[in-house]
């Protein structure tokens, strides 16, 4: 499966990078909204205490999903939750099932569930007195200020454990995350939350962009290696790799010396030579394909400007501009960066001379210029 991922075309990685950047920004916007709700909730008073038997989320849940509920813990359903992979335990949590004042002792109704880490369980055991609010026939009444949520870490394992114990979840069932260290600490904004999300999301997007660029570079290198020497099979080679018949006849009449072979060769027009030059094994993309690729690059660039942070967007723009300006074999591939066009200026001029006069090569004082 992983090998198939690395065989995808380069533009697929670019689309995936844009999607990752978009999703990252959506997550950041969502978290900023939650941060604003928590800040607003902190300015207000905590909600009124409500018994779990009478809890209604439409009336008793405040901003940032904050609740203040009271009830009793059904100690017979206290359970240690574990996750394992290949027989090795990967995580542990502790489940406490809560019921309301209206639920009789021995009932199998769960109004709320606490899922605590080991550190939270130890804190709860040592400071349980500060959560006691009364005494019920079923046991000690406890009041918690916290956040009500429909799912959390280990909630799937908790549901499985309750099903095995025959515990039924109530209509307004929820998972409770108590504010053990106070609502001020729980509702305080996290300045690194958005940065952490962006670091992770843009890290993946950047890796995909680098993978796409590496695919493009490897493809260009492969094209150059497959192109080879245009004059490998003779001074003038047709698209099929064979010399022109008229050239073969002239070469056969002048076998005495290499210079004679060159002298016997009839000069061809520039357009004919361009049509006859062989590019073995090289796939020349159609004009429509090149246009689509350029359009995708443009969409990716525009998306980067609007999605990425200004600093990162500037870095990406500079990187793309530098990559486009890098010299490449413009004369052979027909494409290249800005510097490639300048770099290939003299080569084009010499090529035009050779197209009209094949003996120009012999007159060049430095053959490396050809």
N-to-C SSE series?
Answer: HHEHEEEEHEEHEHHHHHHHHHHH
The shape is: elongated
What fraction strand?
Answer: 15-25%
* CA distance, first residue to last residue: 47 Å
Task: Give the radius of gyration.
Answer: 37 Å
Strand order, main sheet: write it out: 2-4-5-8-7
Compute the average pLDDT. 76
Helix content: 40-55%
Oligomer: single chain
Low-confidence stretches: 229-241, 261-265, 268-284, 330-339
Biggest β-sheet description: 5 strands, mixed, barrel
Work out the helix count: 16
By DSSP, the count of extended strands is: 8
By helix and strand content, what is the structural category? alpha+beta
Description:
With 370 residues, the chain is α+β, with helices and mostly antiparallel strands. The longest helix has 35 residues. Helix content is 51%, strand content 17%. Among the domains are: 144 residues, no CATH class; 50 residues, no CATH class. The two termini are 47 Å apart. A 5-stranded mixed beta barrel has the order 2-4-5-8-7. α2 packs antiparallel against α7 and α2 packs parallel to α11.
List the helices and strands and how they pair.
Elements: H1 2-5, H2 10-43, E1 50-51, H3 57-60, E2 66-73, E3 79-85, E4 88-99, E5 109-116, H4 118-126, E6 132-136, E7 139-149, H5 155-165, E8 168-178, H6 183-187, H7 193-227, H8 245-253, H9 258-264, H10 270-276, H11 287-307, H12 310-325, H13 330-333, H14 338-343, H15 345-356, H16 360-363
Helix pairs in contact: 2-7, 2-11, 8-9, 11-12
């Amino acid at each position: 499966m992983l090998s198939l991922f690395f065989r995808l075309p380069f533009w697929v990685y670019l689309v995936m990078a844009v999607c990752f950047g978009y999703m990252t920004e959506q997550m950041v916007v969502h978290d900023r909204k939650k941060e604003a709700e928590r800040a607003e909730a902190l300015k207000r008073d905590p909600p009124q205490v409500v018994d779990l038997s009478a809890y209604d989320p439409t009336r008793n849940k405040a901003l940032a999903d904050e609740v203040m509920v009271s009830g009793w813990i059904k100690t017979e359903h206290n359970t240690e939750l574990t996750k394992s992979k290949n027989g090795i335990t990967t995580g542990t949590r502790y489940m406490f099932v809560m019921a309301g004042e209206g639920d009789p002792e021995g009932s199998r109704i769960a109004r709320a569930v606490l899922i605590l880490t080991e550190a939270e369980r130890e804190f709860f055991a040592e400071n349980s007195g500060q959560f006691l609010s009364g005494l019920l026939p079923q046991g000690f009444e406890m009041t918690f200020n916290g956040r009500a949520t429909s799912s959390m870490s280990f909630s799937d394992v908790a549901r499985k454990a309750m099903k095995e114990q025959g515990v039924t979840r109530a209509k307004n069932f929820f998972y409770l995350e108590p504010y053990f260290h106070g609502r001020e600490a729980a509702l305080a904004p996290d300045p690194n939350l958005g940065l952490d999300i962006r670091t992770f999301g843009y890290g993946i997007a950047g890796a995909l962009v680098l993978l796409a660029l590496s695919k493009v570079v490897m493809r260009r290198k492969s094209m150059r290696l497959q192109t080879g020497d245009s004059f490998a099979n003779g001074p003038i080679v047709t698209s099929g790799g064979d010399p022109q018949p008229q050239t073969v006849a002239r070469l056969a009449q002048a076998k005495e010396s290499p210079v004679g072979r060159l002298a016997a060769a009839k000069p061809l027009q520039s357009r004919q030579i361009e049509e006859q030059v062989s590019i073995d094994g090289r796939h020349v993309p159609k004009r429509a394909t090149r246009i689509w690729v350029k359009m995708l690059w443009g969409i990716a660039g525009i998306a980067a400007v609007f999605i990425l942070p200004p600093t990162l967007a500037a870095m990406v723009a500079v990187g793309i501009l530098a990559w486009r300006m890098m010299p490449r074999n413009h004369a052979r591939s027909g494409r290249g960066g800005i510097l490639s066009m300048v770099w290939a200026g003299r080569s084009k001029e010499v090529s035009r001379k050779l197209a009209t006069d094949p003996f120009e090569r012999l007159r060049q004082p430095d053959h490396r210029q050809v």
